[in-house]
Amino acid sequence: MSETTAPASTGLPTATRDGVGASPLRPDGALKATGEFAYSSDMWTEDMLWGATLRSPHPHARLLGVDTAAALALPGVHAVLTHEDVPGEKRYGLEYADQPVLAFGKVRYKGEPVAIVAADHPETARRALDRIRVDYEVLEPVSDPLRAAFDPDCPLVHEEGSVPDDGRHRRGGNLARHQPVRTGAFAEGATVEELRARADVVVTGSYEVGMQDQAFLGPESGLAVPAEDGGVDLYVATQWLHVDQGQIAPCLGLAPDKVRLALAGVGGAFGAREDLSMQVHACLLALRARRPVKIVYNREESFLGHVHRHPARMEYEHGATGDGALLYAVARIVLDGGAYTSTTPAVVGVAASMGVGPYAIPNVRVDAYGVYTTNPPCGAMRGFGAVQACFGYESQMDALAARLGAHPVDLRVANALAQGSRVITGQRIDAPLPMAEMLLRARDAPMPPGRSALPDPADPRTLPGGVSATVLGEGVVRGVGYAVGMKNLCFSEGFDDYSTARVRLESVGGGPAVTVHTAAAEVGQGLVTVQGQIARTELGVERVTVLPADTRVGSAGSSSASRQTYMTGGAVKAACEAVRERVLALARERGPVPPGARLSLSGGAVVSASGDVLVPLAELLDGSPVEETREYHHRATRMVDPVNGQGDSHVQFGMCVHRAVVDVDVELGLVKVVEMTAVQDVGRAVHPQQLVGQIQGATAQGVGLALMEEVQVADGVIRNPSFTDYLIPTVLDTPPMRIDVLECPDPAAPYGLRGAGEPGTLSSTPAVAAAVRAATGRALTRVPIRPEDIVGLPAPRRRR
Amino acid sequence: MRVTFEVNGRPVTADDVWAGESLLYVLRERLGLPGSKNACEQGECGSCTVYLDGVTVCACMVAAGQAHGRRVRTVEGLSSPGGGQRLDAVQEAFLEAGAVQCGFCTPGLLVQADDLVGRTARRGLGVPGDAEIREHLAGNLCRCTGYEAIVEAVRLAAERADAAVRGGAR
Ligand code: FES
Ligand code: FES
C-alpha cells in the first residue's frame, strides 16, 4: 500500500559494514522487544519509596498556607515537603528562572505543584496528599490570551520581578516576548493601506490552532538515589541531561558535581521533556528521606506536568498582483504561553522569522507575541512555533490560489524560495533548497485509487467512521490538499548549543573495538544507531559500543530542534577524526609504513591508498588505547534586531511538502485520511530506515493536530486530561504514507545532512485541512477541525 | 491478599496485594516483570497488553485478584516459553521493519500482533490483509512511528509464519 523511496548509496567507503548511509538494526531494539529495556518508570530498588505531588486545583489563587501535619502522621509516610523545604533556589526555568519548585505566594495554573510526599506504597502517598490542607484565596483567572496581551487593564500573571529580566527580549505586562519583523516598504514605515492599494488581489483570514499535547507514551518518571557524599544520583527520562543538572543543582543548594544524572529509558519526548517535571521533587524527597524515591506520573498528571504546544490566534493578510506574484504579507501571531516562560521567547522567535513561510515576498510585516496567562504552561513541541504559523500562511496561500483561479501548487512554485533567496530576517539561504521540485513531486506522485475502484466501496473499513459507520458512504466526498513548511534546525538566535563526544579505540580480545560516550538523549529517534554508524565509517571498525548517556561527559545539548544527528553526530565525527589522526601517526611511527604514504582506516586495519592492509588495528593498539574528546559547534548565529527582526539567526533550514488525500462524509462531519504523501530534503540520509520513520511519525502527529488533537482548556482548566478524551491517532486514523526523500547536501553540515525530525509536522496539518476544504467547500480556519465545522453547525457553547 | 497464578509458564505468588492493585501493578512492581508498560491505566493505549488464559487483555484493567489461578503470558514470555533466549519471529519482524522507536508501545503491540499471527497465518489461514491488521491493532497507540512500520512488521511476521506452515505441510 505504502511506498518509500530512500537513497541506497552513500558515496562513502563501503569496506566497513553498517556505516553512514546503511540501515543497521538499532542497538537497543532487541531489549525493547523483549521487555528488558529499562525505562524511567521501570527503575526499581529494594528499599525505594514512592513520591507523589499535590497540585493546585485553581488556575489562579493566592497561597495562604499549607498544613502537612496530618499527612506526616499517616503510617508509611516518610516525608512531606513544601516550598519552605527547598534549600536552594526556589525557582527554575529554561530561559528565565520563574517556575517555582513548589508554589509560594501564588499559584498560576491548575496543576501547579504545591507539596510533595514520599511513602512506601503509591496508594499511601496518594492518601497522604488528601490529608494536606491548603488555604487559597481564589483569584480571577487570566484565560484570554488576546486580552492578556493587549488590554492594559488586564491583571498581571506575574507581578513585577517574578520573572527575572536579562534584557534579551522586548517584554512587559503579560508579554513574554514581542518580536516584530519589517521588510521592504514596511521597513520604511509604509502602512498596510498603501500596499493594499497596489495589489490586485487581497486575502485576509483569522486562524486558530488548538493546544496540542506531545502525548508521549512513557510518562514523566525517574528514580533519585541519595549518595554517601551528600549528593544525589538521578535516573530520569529527559531530552537534555546537562540542562536538567544545571537547573536541579541550584534548587537543591548543591554543587553541580553532586547532582549526577543518567539517562533512563525514554518513552518518547517530542519537546515535552525539555522542561523539568519531577526531577527536583524526587531529589528533594530522596535527600530528606535518605531513601531512593521513585516518581511516576499517571496520564492525567502527565497532562498537567509538562508544557504543551502553544495554542495560536493568528491574523493574516496577503496581497498579490494579478499574475500571482506575492506583493506583501502581514501577520499577527499570538501564542498563549500559559503561566511560566519555559521556551516561549524562542518559540516566538521561530514564529516571527518563519511567520509567512518559504515564499519570496518583497514587503512583510510580522508581529509575533508570547503571552502569559493562567492557562497550562506551553513550550517546546516538535515544530516549535513554525507549526502554528504554517497553518496560517498555507491556509492563506490556498485562499489566494482560489481567488486567482490558480492550482495551489502552481501558486506556491511561482513564489518559492530557493538557494540564494533571503528569508524575511534578511538571512540568505546558502544551502540547496529544491522547493519547487519538491512541490511538483508531491503533486505528480501517483494518486490512490478512487472509492469506485475499491473492491467493495461499502466496506465500512474504507469509510469515514470505520466499522462504527451507520451509513453506506452516500455523503462521502474526496478532497486533495497540498502544503509546504519550512523550519529552522538546531538552536537559533545566538545560542551555542554545542555537543561533546568521547571516543575510544582499543584492542579488545584480539580485535579492534570502539566506545562512544556522549550525554545525548536517545528518545526513540535512533540516535544510538547513528552514533555507531558514524564511528564505523570514520574508524573503519565494525564493533562499536555506545555507552549509556550520563553527565560524566560534557553536554550534548538537547534532543530537540532536529539537531542531534547534526550536532552529536558532528561531535562523534570530530572525536573519531582526532582518534584516527593519532592512530595513523602511531602507524607511521611503529609500523611498516612506506614514508609519505596516504593512509586510512578500513576493515579494522590501517590501509594504504590502494587498499592494502598495512597493519591490523588490534596489533597496533595492543595495550595502548587511543581516546579523544571533542566539542562540536555549529556556525555562529545572532539575535535578531528587536525592532525590525533582521539578522542571521538560524543555522540551517529544513523543508517538507505534503499532499493529503481525504474522504469526508460531509453529512456526518467525519474524515478518513486516505493517503499522505511527503517529500522532504534531508541533505544526506544517515540511516534511511530511521529517517523515514521520523517523517512518518511527524506526519501522523500533523494529521492528529488537523483532525482530533486538542487539549481543551476552559477558564484555565483542562477538560480532557486522559487518552479517553484527548485523542491521538490510532492505526485506523493514520493513513498509508508515501515518503519521498531527496538528498541535496548542505556543505556546512556533517556529511551534508539536514535535521529531519520536525519539518514533517509543519506541512502535514495544513495539507489535511486543505483537503477537507476541497471536499467540503468550507473555509475551516481552525484546527483541529471538528465534525460541527464540517457540517456547519454552530460550535457547542462551552460549559463554564 | 495473596494472589497465585501462572506467568509465562511459571507459578508465581504475590503477598500483601492491596485490593485496588491491578494485574499490571503486580506484574511490574511485585513480580519483577516490568516489560508490560503503563501509559494510561485506563484501557486506552494497549501498552499493557498481555494474554490472560490465551485472550489478549489490558492488564491495567484487570484487578490482580481476577488473575488468581489463571494463566498470564507477557512480552517477556513471547520468545522463551521454554526458557530460550532467541527473539521470536514477530519480535524479529518488528526490529527489521523499523517498527520500534522509543519502544514504549512495543511490548503491548507485540502481544497483540502475536495474537493476530496466531489466529491467522500460524493456523494456516493465510496472511491477513492491511485492513484486518489495522483493525486488530486499533487498541494499541503508538506516538512515534505513524504505524507504517508496525503494519509492515506484522505483515512480514505473518508472511513468514504462513510460509513456515505451508512449508511444514508439504
Ligand atoms: S496502560 Fe493499560 S491500556 Fe494503557
Ligand atoms: S515507538 Fe514510541 S510509542 Fe510506539
Overall description:
The complex is a heterodimer of chains A (800) and B (170). Chain A has 800 residues and is α+β, with helices and mostly antiparallel strands. Among the domains of chain A are: 40-139 and 223-266 and 273-305, Aldehyde Oxidoreductase, domain 3; 498-633, Aldehyde Oxidoreductase, domain 4 (2-Layer Sandwich). Chain A contains 18 helices and 34 strands. In chain A, strand 18 (326-338), helix 9 and strand 19 (363-372) form a beta-alpha-beta unit. The radius of gyration of chain A is 27 Å and the shape is globular. The two termini of chain A are 46 Å apart. Chain B is α+β, with helices and mostly antiparallel strands and 170 residues long. Chain B has 2 domains: 3-78, Ubiquitin-like (UB roll), CATH 3.10.20.30; 89-168, [2Fe-2S]-binding domain (DNA polymerase, domain 1, Orthogonal Bundle). Chain B is built from 5 helices and 5 strands; from the N terminus they run ββαβββαααα. At the A-B interface, helix 1 and helix 16 of A face helix 2, helix 3, helix 4 and helix 5 of B. The complex binds FE2/S2 (inorganic) cluster (FES) (2 copies). One FE2/S2 (inorganic) cluster sits between chains B (100-105, 142-145) and A (217, 268, 524).
